[in-house]
Structure formats: C-alpha cells, structure tokens
UniProtKB/TrEMBL annotation:
It comes from the Eukaryota. InterPro entries: Ran_GTP-bd-rel. This is Ran-specific GTPase-activating protein 30.
C-alpha cells in the first residue's frame, strides 16, 4: 500500500518505499523456499527418486527457520520507521470500502476471478473466460473532439460515435504468449489461439506455460443480430459464426494493461450518449493507451536498468 501511494505522487513516502519493498521481497522469497522445502518433504515421504536426502532437507529447514527469525527482527526494527513515515505524510491506510463500492458486487467479482483462476491452473496453455458475457453498445470519441478541454462543459460538448450497436464483451485470462491474439474457436476448457496475429505476434511475450504466468484481455465481438439493417460489399469480409456469435462482425481484443483510466456513470447524459427516452443507461468509460507496456515488459526493463 505504501508503494501504491508513493507511485500516485506522494513524495513524502518515497523514503519508506525502499524499506517496504526489501521486506516484501524477502517475505516472498521465504515463501518460495518454504514451498520448495514442503515439496521436498512430500517427495521424501513418498520415497521418490527425485527427493533430496533427509540431511539436506533438514539443513534447508533449519536455514529457513533462521532466516525467518532474522526477518522478524528486521520487521520489528522497521515498523516504527514505517509508522513514522506514514504519520508525517498524513496519508490514511484505512481499508474501509468506499460508500460507492457494493460489497456484494465485490464478492461476486472475487468469485468470478477465483473460479477462473482455478480452471486456468489446471490448463495454463489455454485461455479461460472470467465471469459472464456482457452485451453492450460501444462508442468512441470522435477524432475531431479528442483534444477538447477536460472541463465539465467541454466533456458535454464532445461528440461520441457509435461504432458497435450490439457488442458481446468477454473478460478472458490468457497465457502470456497470446496476449494480443484473438481466439480462433471455442474448445472444452478454454479458447484456441489463432497462432498470433501478424500485427501483434512480435508483441507477445515468451512464456513457459506456467500457471503463475498470465494476462487478461477483453474480447469484443460485434453481434449483427441487432434488429438493424447491415449491408456488405462483395469485397468486404462477410459476417459469420465466431466464438458463440452467429453473425459476428467486428472482432477485436484489448489487453487489460492498455486501459490507463476507467470511469463509471449511472447515466449517459453527462456524455450526451443514449436517447432521451432511456432512463437507465449506465456508462463505463475506458481510456486506452495502445503504447502501454505489459507488466512483464516493465519488469524486464527494470532488471536491465538496475546496476549490477
């Protein structure tokens, strides 16, 4: 939490970031060592040929216990300094939910993520849908109004263009090497990748197909069964069945890390979206940064920049 607050621009906590980051990395490293030691102990009980000797396992456990005691002493020394930094900065680390957040919706979202992660862990080379399919109308800011002032009146005067009247949007957890790929077809347990789009294959991240390696993307599919008339020229791509949609038109994928800002409004009137007769027309506004780096890319770049 201190790292997040400092990243948002609170410079008074920057002095505590280095300390908290070191402690967090040590805790995570000890967790990995404990998991490995527990795995070795399990192999030893099963008398597996891959198991280390009893002496090596006991020595590793003693070293882990010793490092845990050292870490506890470091935490006891660091807590007063961290509390002092928090107090002087004036920030609040309260975990109370904001009044605008629904606890039931938060638990529902957590359940969707947990269920998807469980399925993904059994087959990390496939993609898994998270939660339900959302049927939405999609608008994009008209290019001529993209650089208007960001005050309230300027926002109301902007022009929004409806690009998809009926879109089926799905949140999907995918392997790292399919971050920019559209799914080819639906198969039991997940999605089959199309092998990498020519424009995006170079941007995909090499992956070892581990359950801990993952990324999220939004799949947007236009459903032309929307009670509207659509015409297509002979040379255009003709609509057809695709990923559960009988008449699919536009198909696009948006990696989650490219969403730089997100806003929600109960009504579209503030953006002049929707018709006058619509009473309930909630709006989810996403700002996309197509040049944003994936988290893995950022970590790789940080490692290369660190002095050896």
């Amino acid at each position: 939490m201190i790292e997040l607050i400092a990243a948002r621009g609170n410079t008074t906590l920057e002095s505590a970031v280095t300390l908290t980051k070191d402690l967090r990395w040590e805790i995570q490293a000890l967790g990995v060592r404990l998991a490995a030691a527990a795995n070795d102990e399990e192999l030893l009980r099963k008398r597996s040929s891959k198991a280390r000797s009893r002496e090596q396992n006991e020595l590793e456990l003693k070293l882990v216990v010793s490092d845990i005691r050292k870490l506890l002493l470091r935490i006891e020394d660091a807590v007063p300094l961290i509390n002092l930094a928090i107090t002087t900065s004036g920030v609040s680390l309260s975990s109370t939910l904001p009044a605008t957040v629904s606890p039931s919706r938060l638990l529902q979202a957590s359940t969707f993520l947990t269920a998807g992660d469980t399925v993904y862990s059994t087959a990390p080379t496939t993609a898994v849908q998270i939660g339900p399919v959302y049927v939405l109308s999609m608008y994009m800011l008209f290019a001529g109004h993209a650089w208007r002032p960001h005050d309230e009146e300027g926002v109301r005067e902007t022009t929004w263009k409806e690009v998809i009247h009926k879109a089926r949007v799905k949140l999907v957890r995918v392997p790292l090497d399919r971050l920019y790929d559209l799914p080819e077809a639906e198969i039991p347990g997940g999605l089959k990748s199309n092998g990498g789009n020519a424009d995006h294959s170079s941007r995909n991240i090499p992956s070892e197909a581990k359950s801990l390696e993952f990324a999220y993307q939004l799949i947007v599919i236009e459903d032309l069964d929307d009670d509207r008339v659509h015409s297509f020229e002979d040379g255009d791509v003709q609509p057809g069945p695709y990923y559960g949609v009988t008449l699919a038109g536009i198909r696009d994928v948006i990696p989650i890390h490219e969403i730089s800002k997100i806003f929600y409004a109960d009504t579209g009137k503030i953006l002049n979206i929707g018709s006058e007769g619509e009473v309930n027309s909630p709006i989810l506004l996403l700002k996309r940064d197509i040049n944003a780096e994936a988290p893995r890319r950022m970590m790789e770049r940080q490692r290369t920049e660190e002095p050896q």
